[in-house]
Amino acid sequence: MRFLTVNYQSVPEIGRLWASLAQIPGTHELWVVDNAQERAALQALGGEGRLHILDAGGNLGFGRACNLGLQRLWAEGRSPVWLINPDAWLGSGAVAAVESVVGNAAIVGTTLQDEQGCPIFAGGRYAPHTGRIWEEPSDRPQWVSGASLILDLAQFPECPTFDEDFFLYYEDFELCQRYQRLGYPLTLVPAAVYHAPATVTGRTPVAKIRWQTGSYLMALHKVGPPWALLYRLGRIGLSGYGKPPAIAQAQSAGLQDYLNWAGWGHPRTA
Q1: pLDDT in tens for each of the 270 residues of the chain?
Q2: Domain boundaries in the chain?
Q3: pTM beyond 0.85, yes or no
Q4: How many other C-beta atoms are found inside a 10 Å radius of the C-beta of residue 97?
Q5: Is residue 87 a contact partner of residue 199, using CB atoms and an 8 Å limit?
Q6: Buried b (16+ CB within 10 A) or exposed e, 206-243
Q7: Which of 105, 132, 174, 175 would be a feasible disulfide site paired with 127, CB 3.0-4.6 Å?
Q8: Which residues does 173 contact at the CB level (< 8 Å), separation at least 6?
Q9: Interatomic CA distance for residues 69 and 81, integer angstroms
């Protein structure tokens, strides 16, 4: 299996991921798109020629970095690619569970659990009429998490990619919606995939709120009806009242980011 992850100040976490792959039977490769110019530290993880590093030339965000890796792997062959967060790792039976369903769907997501084995993701839902996007256990999810997502390249006539308008957050939701509308099936498989959410983005919680807000509105703009977007714009515009100033300012910045992207706002000066 070919694995693809993105590094941004997460070398120790990638070391844990690589160690988990080394415990799984079979020959697996880990491709790392390096958003942080930490090649030397990544090379020190070893890998015996099965850990490959691609220099992104800067911090591209998640989706663009994944696209860089996907295009390289597309050129290498059409076998499946398992996108996995750097702060995730695999347990026993995870690869076998995925391999049992690859071929039945172009996009395969996995369940996620925390370090104690408690479920933290088992499916994503979307209500177009209200713009609500949420996580809920489902046998037939409408989207799956990009923290552990397999693309069966053999089922695509061209290399599948994320929308590069997204820097962080909701790019997985948009990808799932876009390719399902084009007729590519999606499924979710229970698997022993562990995740320590926000290990990196949690270091900058205010910036995280800004990215989440702007990306959420952009996702609705791209895939949903306009009335749902307008409804959510109103709710977000009013939701800052009564919140701590840093959170309110982050939401406002995310809202402004979206308005600027959509051509409805004035560029921020600070």
Answers
A1: 999 999 999 999 999 999 999 988 888 999 999 999 999 999 999 877 799 999 999 999 999 999 999 999 999 999 999 999 999 999 999 999 999 999 999 999 999 999 999 999 999 999 999 999 999 999 899 999 999 999 999 999 999 999 999 999 999 999 999 999 999 999 999 999 999 976 666 677 889 999 999 999 999 999 999 999 999 999 998 877 778 889 999 999 999 999 999 997 554 433
A2: 2-195, 204-262
A3: yes
A4: 17
A5: yes
A6: eebbbbbbbbbbbbbbbbbeeebbebbbeebeebbeee
A7: 132
A8: 124, 126, 133, 143, 219, 223
A9: 10
> One-letter amino acid identity for 196?
A
Q: What tokens does 14 get? A: 């990638």
Hey, what are 265's tokens? 């706002």
Please give the CATH number for the structural domain made up of 2-195: 3.90.550.60
